[in-house]
Queue: 2 jobs
Job 1
Amino acid sequence: MISEWFSRFRFFLRRDILTRRRTSELDDELQFHVEQSTAVKMAQGMTLEEARRSALIEFGGVEQARERCQEQEPGWWIDALIQDVRYGLRGFRRSKAFAVSAVLTLALAIGATTAVFSVVDRILFRALPYTDAGQLVSVGITVASQPEEFMTGRFYLDWQANHKPFAEIAAQGDTPHPCDLVENNPAELQCVTFQAGMLPMLGVSPALGRNFLPEEDEPHGPPVVMISYALWQGHYGGDRQIIGRQINIDENLARVVCVLPQGFQFPTLEAADIVKPMALDPALQNKVNGGFGDTMLTFARLKPGVSLAEAQAEMQPVSDPEMAWLPERMRNLTRLSIRSLRAREIGDARRMAWILLGAVAAVLLIACANVGGLMVARGAARQRELAVRAALGASRWRLARQGLTEALLLALAGAAAGLALAEGLLRVFVAMAPAGVPFLGKAHLDLRIAAFTVLLSLACGVVFGLTTALHRPDGLMATVRSTLSRKHVRLRRGLVMAQIAASVVLLAGAALLLRSFQRIEEQRLGFATHSLMTAQIALPEFRYNTDAKWMEFHLQVEQAMRGVPGVTAVAFTDSVPPGGWQAKLRYSDLIVKGRPPTPPGFGGWIAWRLVTPGYFQALDIPVIRGRGFTDKDSTGNVPLVVLSRLAAARLFPGEDPTGKYSVRGPGGTWFTVSGVADDAKNGGLTSDEEPEIYFLRRDVADDWKDRRSVLVIRSALPEATMAGFLQGVVHNLDPTVPVEMEPMTETVNRLADRPRFETALLGFFALMGLAMAAVGIYGILAYLTSQRTQEIGVRMALGATRSNILGLIARDGLRMVSAGGAVGLAAALGLAHVLRALLYQTSAYDTLAFLAVPVVLCVAAGAAILLPAQAGMRVQPASALRNE
Amino acid sequence: MPTSTELLQGTLDLLILQTLATGPMHGWGVAQRIQQVSKDVLQIGQGSLYPALHRLEYKGWIRADWGNSENNRRAKFYSLTRTGKKRLETELEDWDRLSAAVALVLGRIPEASS
């Protein structure tokens, strides 16, 4: 094989000299044949003239014989290929517009498709990295406020004992939480707990060491841990002696028994560095956490052949008696849930991924139609050339081969540019993408899909290129100009209309998302984001190790900041709206003085915040009844709360609770209701407000037990100035403490990352599609206009005005636009419901969006129509007629 | 005028090899020889002859040398190479097997017809 290639290569190098010699030898040989034949015929009595003529006739086509002899030579196709390539390149140089637009179209299509597919591949198609991952499920119960299934120890014990449809079942103790590695080289890590059955159930074996033993997964078992591959490599330098070593986690010594494999995917996708045994204590599960037992997440492997529905049906009888234990009010809200692990890991990214994929498929179709249209146009423009070549003896195969080579050249150039574009786009995606798009960090260019798109666009080019190349070129075409290309024109019209229809669908989708995004941006948040800043002060806990020291520092900062000129209000809170973490408690945890308690259970949730008096002023949340907190309250000994309008309406419907009622929180303290504040957006940008309760954080060490503190400052001064002031204040108190500040507008902006990402992407694809469709319209009209130059000349000579000519050309374009647009709008209306889940307070049939689409289309199409029409108007009748 | 007979696929190669077995010959000679020997039944058109000669040359079964013809004109003479000779033997064996088999199928016993 190698030697064969080597000899071919050598042959290739000497090709020129050899070819020339061979050609002349071949000519000699064939010449000799004809001479011999002539001599024989002369011997039979013919004259020299006659003999030669007859010999040549008998011989047949000398050219053909030569070509066929040359084709016997090994590797002759290299020459032919080079010739085709040269010819093709020369052609491209002559029609640069064609070559550039074809390559650009291909590059855009290949780039966008490859980038999008690289992102969605793992979300939609790739199996999870576990053995036989299709059988893995996430099981548990869901409640209204907690749509992701979870499990509590009380139920889990029953499930473990009766896991009929499951071959294996194993639990993870809640989600990863911070923990400290205490040693000379300390580190803050993420810890999580697994049952011993977890790794075997996932079908994952350790990179080093062994899984937990059953006795290690019991209460008070020997302390052991697994460590992640990243921690092993990064912190321990990949030392194989790590197995068996004692490490100190949160002041507890534990022996490392296992290094998890590289790239191990935690079932919740939240990576941890340390895995401890869960050591579930069955004796405690009916007692702790209000009798529910420890909360955990459970995963299972279905027995072979058992479907999700069957598993659900089999587990229902196990779960029903458990549900009966719940208070009746909760029972309706609680459900048994079994879904594939994949569904849990991917979550709602799935819908977005499908929509992206659909959008990019539409772009790919438009691009293919564009390339097809370009090839048809080129084929039509070259009819004369092809006819001439055919007349000179080029076979149809030879012409087809030429077309094929050209399509290949275009595809290669397009692929190279497209891959570069894909790499860039992928980076943009990763940079732009909101948090929570799974596997985005692992996304890399998928060469398989790049190859697929190259092939697809190549196929478009070849199919449409060949239809014209194979269209029997006959002698007539060398002389006749336009009449015979009618078929091509019809084909191109169809392609252009398809492009318009597809781009209208994309435009409609983008318009809907844009409307929804606009609603998100313009909605009333319930507090003023401008001139509002939040700051995190990273106070080291080991030096400020008592509640009093902690409070002292924060109160000093608050006091100092209030004195800064230009600052309107300052407050400390444990969390800030409108999104992000916030504390929640159950209604049943709240007891109103003088009323029977709500029965215990999950119930509804109520958000709460722990704030210093300046909070309402700082966020500009109006207090609508009673009063907010004052500085005097901070030093007083009456604990106070302010309710949000929603919370007040729920707890005290139709009443003004101000001053009249007290509520008791889980801590046992009674708080007097001092006022009602207006609702503020607190459950993220796209969900409704949750009821909220504000507790006053007084100047009492106990109120600072929870260390979470965010400083909120209202000031018209620029953020940089304010950050300087704050740094100065903190530095005065403790020079080692770092401060981080962010304007609230940025925080809110980040929350809109996801809809912004979706809108931007779909908008980008829609514009791309529209641009290509416009190029398509322009292309065909410009072609038709140039073909009709003579006709236009005649019309003008006969008295047609410029506006007549404009109408003539524009009418044709408008017909395509309206037909394609109508089909596209119908399809868009049919498909709009797909987007419903992504839309916020926007109907899938939003009138404005669907009115905007035709307008945008008309503007783009108008430009594409006007350019060739103008060219038509500029035709000088005299010169147009003289030309022929 | 004898009717030209369609040559069985691959038979032309065999005819050329067999003809060249008698000694070096140029293209014209090969065509003439086949026509003579077959009593004008087989007429090899140059359109297939020369491509076949070139194909055999590239396969290394025959060799080409430039020499002088009977009328002292420069011509290309083809001769069998050693691999060509071996090839001819196997091709002949194949041919015998094939023609015997065809004769059997057609219901003609070779001994009776020859």
Note: The helical segments of chain B are 11-20, 27-37, 46-59, 82-105, 110-113.
Job 2
Amino acid sequence: MNCCTTTTEAGKLPGTLSGVRRLIVCGPPNVGKSLIFNRLTGRHAIVSNYPGTTVEISSGTSDRLPGYEVSDTPGAYSLLPITDEERVSRDVLIEAHDATILHIVDAKNLRRMMPMTLELLELGLQVVLVLNMMDEARQYHVHIDSNQLGELLGIPVIETVATRNEGIDDLCRIILDGIPPSRSLSVPYDDRVTRLMETANPVVDPAESPSQFVAVGGADSFTKEEMGEFELSVRLARQHYADQILGQCATFPPPSSGAISGILNKITMNGWTAVPFAMAVLYFGVYKFVGGFGAGTLVDFLENGIYEAYITPFLTIWTERIIPWPVLQDLIVHEYGVLTLGLRYAVALILPVIGTFFLLFSVMEDSGYLPRLALLLDKVFKKLGLNGRAVIPIVLGFGCGTMATVVTRILETKRERIIATLLLGFAIPCSAQLGVVLGMLAQRPAAFVAWSSILGAIFLVLGFLAAHNLPGEAPAFYLEMPPLRMPRLGNVLIKTYSRMHWYFIEILPLFLAASVLIWLGNLTGLFKIIIAGISPLVQAMGLPAAASGALLFGFFRRDYGAAGLFDLQKHQMLDARQTFVAVLVISLFLPCIAQFFVMKKERGWTFALATSAAILVTATVVGLVTNAIIVRTGLM
Amino acid sequence: MEAPREPAFVHRLRILFRLDKRHRTQAHAGTGCVIDYKHAFPETLDELRRGQSARIESFSELAHVRKFLSLGILPGTTITILKQFPAVVLRVGYSEFAIDRLLASTVRVRMPERGIN
């Protein structure tokens, strides 16, 4: 398929070539925008059974729509943004005068979602209304006469079932046939709206609609209360208008009672059973599947069975034959070679772990379990200054902290985003580390329990401190609970694949670069000096001097250091106590370079540097204290 | 007439095990001053009982209004309570949402016109 996808910074679309028409996919969260985007472009934007999957704008071209560039935007309920991801969508939409907007809605919830269609039309944008998930609407006996709706609104209205590829051809045909300009419509608003618009901006044109007012930033000066009043009045007027139109062309029978049903739904939503269920998911999913199967069986097979047995000897022999200079040989193979260390870590140690984790995560999100977990953990998260919604970035952080730091955008307040970023940096080990840690502590369940308790305690204490010291309003929790669904195998696999793909693009170069840096460091003797510098500290933690190297490499990438410790342990250079201390320190260690840069991008230099310094100090102190305690008490 | 104050956890247990039903009957018989008015005459979302439906009247915190609007909860909407703990889970239209209890307490509701049974 002829396409290319680019992900760009918030609010900026890739520069458009002249003659290329733009198509912007927008709509509320969790209605299938990304799936429609995928169907149109043949790409794999990530699709989930919970809101907030798309946090950036993806664009692509497609064979089905020659001459068009299609963009996917994060979910938004209206043009007045609540979260940063919605702001991204707003910024794109208000500048979309030359574009065609595909407003995707969930057909059965058309009543709730149509006010935004009206908002887009008020702006004078060229809109196509896409009634997606028609299959579910039919199940609920919802009837919508889309032709009549289209006539009443003066825009094309298309019915689709994106999961089954139904209606996508019609959609493409309508777009290619050319869409007539939408006719402007005038929703009658009451005096409160006009009054509020006048207080905010005295020179407002009386003819200006609330949408235009919002688009020019008139509402930006509103206080939260004024904003609330403004949006409520505007929304009531639009809802009334929408209901009048829908009254002529649609029927929505009342839902049958007991839609929340099914054993699994009861289990995951009832407090008494939900906790054991979550523990079981953690144990079987993370400990057994990711830890046991991914980090154990698969790593063993790839690392010992294939890489060390065949690939390393092969690469070493050939490199030594082709390149006569030992210095260059060292760059490529041998102990710290790009191919025998960097590539081996990435492919044989990290890939199986991250792969199994992403598979688990995809199943959890597609089944609709994550929002239920959010409901369960909301009370705990409130104590940490977060709300239940934060489970999405936090759980994702156990996969990849870098990805999770970007996803903190789904949180509403800056305060929550800061706390979540901090927690991800300090106390959430990513799956690459986790895999290595699980592997190293696998034989000692007690040590594993101690390790998770210490990390858990740091997580709670840090969150608690942050919640009590950071200014700002208390978090609020409100989230859609999608129905529990059997995950679709195809979707789970595509999602796992695209996350792994992202990870590899992002991470593999870093692994290789770190190998080169280590080679340079060794060559110039710089590392010897640094290692000599930090080894007293490392030895004060009761670790062998050789661990200094692993800890130093951990500075480049946490998992890189963790993998280095794994190597040490395999060669019987660490005893039980040393393993435990080393594992603990490396788990607390600095975020990898990639996470550091994302922290900088999302929160700024000061925050990223200060956090990194604090993490370094915490890791060292915890290492020293833990070692002292173990030595004193004689545990282990 | 104010309902007598009771410790928060007793109040929660009462809601959890729906003990207030008994008190309401007592009040009806003219015996009780232990009536739990909050639950006999629910005024906000968090005071409704599981399975009850009500119409949204208004919002007491303008600052939170937008959160509700994003869920399609606006004055005039009929909702049904599916759960009250650990947070309020309710059905609006064909979708279900979770809202924490503090947020839910800022939404005034009106029960359908019916005498207290």
Note: Chain B touches chain A at residues 59, 61-72, 74-75, 80, 82-83, 85-87, 89, 91-100, 102-103 (CB under 8 Å).
